[in-house]
């Protein structure tokens, strides 16, 4: 890599950091404001500060179980170091959350550059309830892939809403991807079959299949996802290579509940948490990342294509607590 490429890489990283900081602004302001109140009038971390800290994390949508693990780590540190100054609490909190997340974190083997599987395309099935930003996420991933030189096919298998098909078509045109669709009310599995068949015949690199976003606790929806999976495997035996669950970060703990229920009902392999730029509930990503055995792959921190970022727990936590 030449010096010019290094400069370009550094510029891209700086832009990504600025975008992340801007996207998490509301969450950061909420966290730091609560942290200031938690230590008001205190010079050292004592039991009262820890109680306030616990309340701060829970009300920031980190989740009770994850919060208790964080508090336990800080208590151990207080016990070990004997004295912790409250002025250091922000950096201590950041360090302990990063350490906690890194313990069970599965590093992403791939970001947006899904690799073709021999003669078969890499198949991504995208799931999630209505309104979480599923279509937008598909469009942004397709754009990134196309820009990276990949040939992308998108299957409009959410056939229960005409708007879903229309939105997906707009994104496909914008991305330069090929859309395969049928009429509203068609069999979703049939759309998936046609998409994989066409993509394989054309030598495409990646297939992204949209699916219906009805309520996540409906048995019928889960049976439908199983049917789509089974039909796709008639064309590509290993399909899908990835099952991406899209969650709306602005719903706080409800996003975690959706992740829990979807993962219990279908084989979710990765998560995307969207709409973090419009909410103060960004702490939910910490809870989801720590509690689920499924990696958070992407986070959405804005409207632009590049605002869908590959999730890195260290960068995320550092941005949340950047003073």
UniProtKB/TrEMBL annotation:
What are its GO biological-process terms?
Answer: SRP-dependent cotranslational protein targeting to membrane
Q: Name one GO cellular component term.
A: plasma membrane
Show the SMART domains listed in the entry.
Answer: AAA, SRP54, SRP54_N
Q: Which UniProt keywords apply?
A: Cell membrane, Cytoplasm, GTP-binding, Hydrolase, Membrane, Nucleotide-binding, Receptor
Superkingdom, taxonomy of origin: Bacteria
EC number(s) of the enzyme?
3.6.5.4
The free-text function statement in the UniProt record for this protein reads: Involved in targeting and insertion of nascent membrane proteins into the cytoplasmic membrane. Acts as a receptor for the complex formed by the signal recognition particle (SRP) and the ribosome-nascent chain (RNC).
Q: State the protein's name.
A: Signal recognition particle receptor FtsY
Q: In which organism is this protein found?
A: Mucinivorans hirudinis
Gene behind the chain? ftsY
